[in-house]
Amino acid sequence: MGGHMAKNLVKAGKDVVVYDVNDTSVQDLKSSGAGACATPSELAACSDVIVTMVPSSPHIQEVFTGSNGLLKSLKPGTLCIDSSTIDPTVSKDIDSAVRAAGAHFYDAPVSGGVVAAENGMLTFMVGGDADKFDEVKSYLDHMGANVITVALMVTDL
């Protein structure tokens, strides 16, 4: 799904740089106009907005906190938007780590599946601080038909 989401950002004219453990996916995105990085850390060093979409909690932990993870070079003020469906406790831990780095974390899981991702028709349910929601929404609008704020992260309820 992340590949389709990235392609929709490219179609919208956004500068997109990607990282994926699957080189075939990276090459496909490069042929669509995206740039590529060799590691999440490299990606963080050149990004002001990062959207992650991975299969499970261990994957998102590796992407953020691994030896070449995003947190190694995350810039203060970066918007981190995670659209993975993961354990709420993991999401809260990532949120704390991102905040400690001076960046912003938004929990934005999706509904709709692969076809909706391909057609830019996902529904995003966004949790995080209200102060940056409009900026987050400005990116999600290119990937989805519905962007709903739940104001707080699910783990805050």
Could you describe the 3D structure shown?
This protein is α/β, with parallel strands linked by helices and 157 residues long. The chain is 39% helix and 20% strand. The protein contains 7 helices and 8 strands, in the order αβαβαβαβαββαβαβ. The strands form 3 sheets. It has a 3-stranded parallel β-sheet, covered by helices on one side. Strands 6-7-8 form a 3-stranded mixed β-sheet. Strands 1-2 form a two-stranded parallel ribbon. The longest helix is centred in the middle third of the chain and has 13 residues. The protein is globular and about 35 Å long.
Residue-averaged pLDDT: 95
Report the major sheet: 3 strands, parallel
Distance between the termini: 28 Å
Q: Any idea what the radius of gyration is?
A: 14 Å
User: How much of the polypeptide forms β-strand, as a percent range?
Assistant: 15-25%
